[in-house]
Amino acid sequence: MEGKPVADSRTVMAQIMNSLDTNLAGNVHGGVIMKLIDTLGGAVGTRHARANVVTASVDRLDFHYPLFIGDLVTLYASLNYVGITSMEVGVRVESENLMTGERHHIASAYLTFVALDRNNRPIPVPPLILETDDEIRRNHEAKERRERRLAEKTKEKQCQLDANKCDFS
Fold first, then answer.
1. Count of C-beta atoms within a 10 Å radius of residue 36
2. Does domain 4-130 have CATH number 3.40.50.300?
3. Is the pTM of this model over 0.85?
4. Fewer CB atoms inside 10 Å of the end CB: C or N, the chain?
5. Tens digit of pLDDT for each residue in 47-95?
């Protein structure tokens, strides 16, 4: 299977937030932002795999600043890592107050997607071609996150099998 560069699946999405997206205080609900992140991340995974993808995990999602009615929210997403059937996508969310021009980094997230065939079975995805120093750095960081995720998954599985191996502290 031929590899694909990060740039081939990199995707940007923007929209203006409206009153349907907000709570009574006028802040956009975190769940609305999460849905946008998941939607864009899935688009990146689908572009790379050219197959249906599903969200396997959200490794991290940090909110840094509120988003308000009328703000333009822009999401930037690209692949950081590709395994056999899974892919890590990094998403950065930024806002712009269109009246003042003030911009903020709203949130960041790392999501893992798995490519599926028509029978909903995992399928191999093309390797990732890293072309820039930034892509190499992001790939290295993604590999470290993957190692931590797998170690945590192993620990959770042991806990399910034997409650004495659980650490509830």
1. 21
2. no
3. yes
4. C
5. 999 999 999 999 888 899 999 999 999 999 999 999 999 999 999 999 9
Dist. CA 80–CA 94, nearest whole Å: 19
- Laid out side by side, the sheet with 86-96 consists of 11-16, 72-82, 86-96, 103-116, 52-63
CA–CA distance, 69 with 23 (Å, rounded to integer): 10
Q: Are 112 and 152 in contact (CB under 8 A)?
A: no
- Where are the chain's structural domains? 4-130
As a whole number of angstroms, the distance between CA 73 and CA 115 comes to 28
Residue 35: phi, psi to the nearest 5?
-65, -40
Amino acid, res. 102? E
Token pair for 163: 């409650």
96's CB contacts (< 8 A; 6+ apart) are 71, 72, 74, 102, 103
Which tokens in the block code for residue 149? Answer: 């995720």
